[in-house]
Amino acid sequence: MTRTRTAVVIGGGIGGLTAAAALHLSGLRVTVLERAPSLRPVGAAISLSPNALRALDVIGLGDEIRDLAAWQGDGGLRTPGGRWLSRSSAEAAEARFGGPLVLLHRSTLVERLAALLPPEAVRTAADAVLADPGDRDRPARVRLPDGELEADLVVGADGIRSAVRRTLFPRHPGTVYSGFTTWRVVIPVPGVEFASHETWGPGRLWGTHPLKDGRVYAYAAAVTPAGGHAVDERAELLHRYGDWHDPIPAVLAAARPEDVLRHDVHHIAEPPPSYHLGRAALLGDVAHAMPPTLGQGGNQAIEDAVVLAHHSQDLAAYTAARLPRTTAVARQAVRTARLNMMGSRTAVAVRDAALLALSKAGPALFLRGFDGIADWRPPQPPYASRRTQVGER
């Protein structure tokens, strides 16, 4: 009788749950160990680009998430005074990359992913520690307060401050401060119509986008020392962005102080030497935390997850497939952060003029920054999807 292979996923975020679903669908018995008392994520919304949606096709979730796309018509990049620097459209992006861009609340995606797993597969309030990564001759071991679990595969998906990463690579320097902090809100803003946009100012940016459920997702970022917090973060946003173009004042007027989330941004500047050791593998922010400037942090974690399931018996192949790609995407995100968070007004004027000229040369040119990212395809067909076949979009 063939023994069922086992996997333990440490961390119940989007990357960990996607990996658990992909491993479960490929025949492994999976246990997800989440330290928090529930799977409800801390955060606001997540943007999924076509590369991540194709990865979700592999576990049969791609079309369900595509149905949540809310961006229609025009959108683009603006100045604080409202001038358009670059315009594109949902249709142009879909035509170029073979699929839509979908913005949804993180909790919605977590719920959909968790529903793909047997109820007994997820354990919350589970403070797990990787005790031994194992090797070819012995299983990996995960320690819990009430005992240990052995597994053929352990997935470290425990976030940017990962204990699993420190266990596997204790000399790795970890994360560095990216130089800016972010604010996020998801709120109803009745009666306000707007084109989806991101706005760049000196050392600051703002984005406003619609969600399928009628709410608005807005985010902001500003160059500031690490560790700062205001007594009233809504008032802080009013101070920094209150005189920017519509609909930003209306969004701020609709927000309450408790609606505003603030987090400093950190990234991994030096990649780990490998994304695996023994029978343990790293994915998502554990392996390649990056600034959110390309919107690819969660997307790359989802890619990691389905590639890991594909190579679950050959982790060296997983590292070979993922480390070069994610390193390149992370470095591009850092370069983009330097571009859109530059503080010199002279440099900003030069940047804006270049973006305007680029836009006039052809709207599609602005989308080229996502070539090689949004057009990625998974290594395996969507074996759990009935509606979508990779390559037919």
Give the helix tally.
13
Percent of residues in helical segments? 25-40%
By secondary-structure content and strand pairing, the structural class works out as alpha/beta
Number of strands: 18
**Residue fraction in strands:** 15-25%
Q: What does this 3D model show about the protein?
A:
- The chain has 393 residues and is α/β, with parallel strands linked by helices.
- It has 13 helices and 18 strands.
- The protein has helices at residues 14-25, 50-58, 62-66, 90-97, 106-114, 163-168, 233-241, 248-254, 285-288, 297-310, 315-340, 345-361, 363-367; strands at residues 6-10, 29-33, 45-48, 74-78, 84-89, 102-105, 122-123, 129-132, 140-144, 147-151, 153-156, 176-187, 196-201, 204-210, 216-223, 261-267, 276-277, 280-282.
- The strands form four sheets. A seven-stranded mixed β-sheet has the order 5-4-13-14-15-12-16, sandwiched between helices. It has a six-stranded mixed β-sheet with strand order 7-2-1-11-18-17.
- It is globular.
- The model is unreliable at 383-393 (pLDDT under 50).
